[in-house]
Amino acid sequence: MARSRRTLAWTAGLAVVVVVGVAAVGAWWYFFRNDAPEQASIQAAAETLDGEGASPSAATRAEGTWTVDPSVGRFQDFSGTWAGYRFDEQLAKIGAVTAVGRTPGVTGRMIVEGGKVTDVDLAVDLTKLKSDKDRRDNALHHRGLESDTYPTATFRLTEPIALPAGAGTGGKVSTTATGELTAHGMTKPVKVAIDAEVANGRIAVVGRAPLSMSRFGIEAPTGFAVLAIEDQGMFEFQIFFTRA
Q1: Contact (CB, 8 A) for 131 and 97
Q2: Which CA distances in Å does 74 have to 28, 42, 48, 202?
Q3: In degrees rounded to 5, what are phi and psi of residue 158?
Q4: Which of the two residues, 136 and 20, has the higher pLDDT score?
Q5: Calculated CA dihedral for residues 70, 72, 73, 79, nearest 10 degrees
Q6: How far from the centroid of its chain's Cα atoms is residue 188's Cα?
Q7: What percentage of residues in the chain have a pLDDT greater than 90?
Q8: Is the pLDDT of residue 19 over 60?
Q9: CA distance 79 to 73
Q10: What distance in Å separates the CA atoms of residue 44 and residue 78, rounded to the nearest whole number?
């Protein structure tokens, strides 16, 4: 009888250990899994345009003034207009993950004339940045980007972009945009790799460029859970334009 009691106690103890272990693994997966979305791609953006159907003002020519169109796609699955950051982090007890935050708050315009993009002027609402961690998002309001103090980032084109022959008649255009990025109260020159495509009366533009926190006077928001953040990351965006 005593042996049976010991066996039952041992079995019950093992069951408790297993349950606790499973719960710990589940908590780890829920709080620290790396859900970083894929980088923006013109292929995905073009698929969104294909699914939108033709605009009433559909045109094949890219010439004209275009404004950011937030009605295309959805921010929830990142098929719509957004801009954001991508940085590698080191988390306590977890290791390396990629932190990605994005905001749908993008406004502005683009002007195409004489076979060139002559003007791009964009503003991004950093207070609406969302990642897969509320703690990270909340911290950026008063640390790092300090979006409560510097709520808006802007990009302004400083050199016209010559478009290749046939741009605006379908197919992808890849080029580089030279401009000025303003963030955290500082303005710096940047070169942005751009892919664009015209379809159904709209223009899809995706882009990416290196982003150094120290260059913009941003102090990495590390702490108990986040041990380190790489200084060099990336800003990226996916923007849909409609003819004004």
Answers
A1: no
A2: 29, 16, 9, 16
A3: -115, -10
A4: 136
A5: -80
A6: 20
A7: 66
A8: no
A9: 5
A10: 10
